[in-house]
Amino acid sequence: MHHTVAFTVERTHWQDAGQATFHFSLDPNLLYFQGHFPKLPILPAVAQLKLLMDCVHELEPQLQFVGAPAMKFTNVLRPHDQVRLELKRVGTKLSFTYYVLHAHTEIIASSGHITLEQA
């Protein structure tokens, strides 16, 4: 069985300030982990982009991905990781940061900017 990611929206000021925060846990049975390093699974960049757009669609289903002019991957996301995703939209630009929660600290896993448009 290939599970989906269940999101919890911690905070949203999407309508007035274009900001939202999502929390989720990375289920080890996610399809994204299969084949992306069998002995040490990590969440591929394309899957991070897909999850990002799933979160965006929770807020505004009509928004479409146009491009990713800047993305930086600094740490890996692994099965069972607790993740916080911060979004900030200004017009057609969306900045994002994935954080991995470890004990009493947060580590940036990836960040960047993507371009969106109305469908």
DSSP strand content: over 45%
- Provide the low-confidence segments as ranges: none
Can you write the helix and strand succession as a string? EHEHEEEE
Q: Report helical residue fraction.
A: 10-25%
Give the strand tally. 6
Largest sheet: 6 strands, antiparallel
Radius of gyration, in angstroms, nearest whole number: 14 Å
**Structural class category:** alpha+beta
Broad shape = globular
Mean pLDDT: 91
Number of helices: 2
Question: In a nutshell, what does this entry contain?
Answer:
The chain has 119 residues and is α+β, with helices and mostly antiparallel strands.
How would you characterize this protein structure?
The chain has 119 residues and is an alpha+beta fold. It has helices at residues 14-17, 45-59; strands at residues 8-13, 19-25, 63-73, 82-90, 93-102, 105-118. The N and C termini lie far apart (32 Å).
Defining key terms:
single chain, 119 residues, alpha+beta, 6-stranded antiparallel sheet, 16% helix
Itemize the secondary structure elements and their pairings.
Layout: E1 8-13, H1 14-17, E2 19-25, H2 45-59, E3 63-73, E4 82-90, E5 93-102, E6 105-118
Antiparallel strand pairs: 1-2, 2-4, 3-6, 4-5, 5-6
